[in-house]
Design brief:
Elements: H1 2-78
Length: 79
Amino acid sequence: MEADIRGHIRLEHEMKIHMDYLEAKVEKFEKEQKAFDVDMGKLNRQVASLTEKLQLIRDDRDDKDRQLKKIKSINDNLR
């Protein structure tokens, strides 16, 4: 019976060590997840900023195209 008790205590000790290992692993993954979320947020803000800048450039290009077409139309009418 004493051997069974010692075996049980040893098993509980091994399980505790394994649980501590798993808990540390979970904490590590949670920390990495938080860092990933922060990086993802930064990248999403950069994408939004660049998308906005691209739209401004496209709008400017479209305005210049309209102005150029107007000038061409006026020149064609003057000929």
